[in-house]
Amino acid sequence: MDPATVNPEMMAPMLGLGLLPLLIFSLPLAIFGYVLGKQKGRNHIAWAVWGFIPFVNWFAAWYFIGATNLKLEGKIDQLLNKG
Question: What is the residue extent of each domain of the chain?
Answer without folding.
Answer: 23-82
